[in-house]
Amino acid sequence: MAKKVCDFCLNEGGGFFSGFEKLTDGHYMCKDCKSIIQGYKLPLKHDLFQCLVTAQSNMKEMIMDAYLETNTPDDTIAKFFPMPAILLHGGEKCVNAFPASVSVNKESIPESLAETSIVNILKDKIHNIPDCTEKDKAQIVEGMLYETDLALYFLSEHFINCHRLGYIQRNTKEKNRVIVTTPTKVFTYKVDHADMFFLRERFYNKVNAAKHNKRQHLIYMSADNKVIITPGSYDIAKSLKPGKYRVKAIKDAGLHIKNHLGKVVDIYETEDPIELHAGSTLECTGEYQLQWIADGEKK
């Protein structure tokens, strides 16, 4: 009897008791992949995010790129990144909308009701209440965590937090927390499947780069070893020389380093420099200033 292959993890099964299931779309799914997909509350069908959550880590980038080769950016955004139920600022796109909670000092929570739509959020309506470090004063507040291409918002009944995208802590192994660290405060939002939050963000940046022809990149040179990069892919050392750089976001919409093995690391603005090695690629979907400060360590 011919062996069946799971169309998600590509593992083989055989016999009548292999645990494989044929979906209504004709694809086969093993019991492990079914459990994973149901855990993420995704429909049981063969589609992009079902394949991503069941794929090995080193295959996720390839799966995203392959999808974009056969689907237009506009169709992809319409399918996977629809407008949320609340109003956004003009031109703002929603990347993520996750139920979330945060533990804050109960004495910091205003009595008045907060705005319920992002479109109405102005600077004087943002509270930015950080984590509470004193257990006897802590109160868990439920709300919604919205990530757009411009900012990260936490909307609750009585207060609103709003953060620059560059303050989101990425490259973590957190499964249920999205952490925002500013120079003076820390905000910890508990969510289900934080890995899906960052997976969606990563894919949105790829779609956005494809839409704006990321290969048509530009580098603006300035004094003091500074360059400004626009959306594009930059080979190190062909386009940028190897070494250590300080990063400053001009339009904080995504910056990533891909090494020669295909591993991707997200970059965000901090006081710590980044290091670019020859043979790696810098993928930019926003606009950033890089200041070269030193030669890197040899690898």
Report how far apart the termini are: 50 Å
- Tell me the strand percentage band: 25-35%
Q: Which strand order does the major sheet show?
A: 11-12-19-14-17
Overall outline: globular
Rounded mean pLDDT is: 87
Number of DSSP strand runs: 19
Instruction: Work out the helicity level.
Output: 10-25%
Which oligomeric form is depicted? single chain
Based on helices, strands and strand pairing, what is the structural class?
alpha+beta
Strand count, sense and barrel status of the largest sheet are:
5 strands, antiparallel
**Taking Cα atoms only, what radius of gyration do you get, to the nearest Å?**
21 Å
The helix/strand series, from N terminus to C terminus, equals: EEEEHHHHEEEEEEHEEEEEEEEE
Structural account:
With 299 residues, the chain is of the alpha+beta class. It has five helices and 19 strands. The chain has helices at 31-39, 48-54, 60-70, 73-80, 194-211, and strands at 4-5, 12-13, 21-22, 28-29, 94-105, 138-148, 152-156, 160-163, 177-181, 186-190, 219-221, 226-229, 232-235, 243-251, 255-258, 264-266, 274-276, 281-284, 287-294. The strands form six sheets. The protein has a five-stranded antiparallel beta sheet, with no helix packed on it. The longest helix is centred in the last third of the chain and has 18 residues, at 194-211. The mean pLDDT is 87.
